[in-house]
Predict the structure.
Amino acid sequence: MHVRIYRPSKTATQSGTGNTQRWLLEYAPSEPSRPDPLMGWTSSGDTRTQLRLYFETEAEAVAYARKNGLSYELVEPQERAVRPKAYADNFRYDRIGRWTH
């Protein structure tokens, strides 16, 4: 079995960094999904793709994968650069460009 270990990024609908501090271990699908002939829903016999394991540190996730004999892919997180902004900067006297309504 192959797993992917990563830290999830924040969703586009949130401004904070909630649920982005823990490491996530996800199983790769071992068989393709197929549409159900009666209802048309997408289904698969592989139930491990529904399993998501969270760990506090990267080392714990890697240790779990090694202990259970899983091959893993470690995806390093891309840290975002936060530029501090202030509302008062909109009214600075040395502002480049015109400020209009």
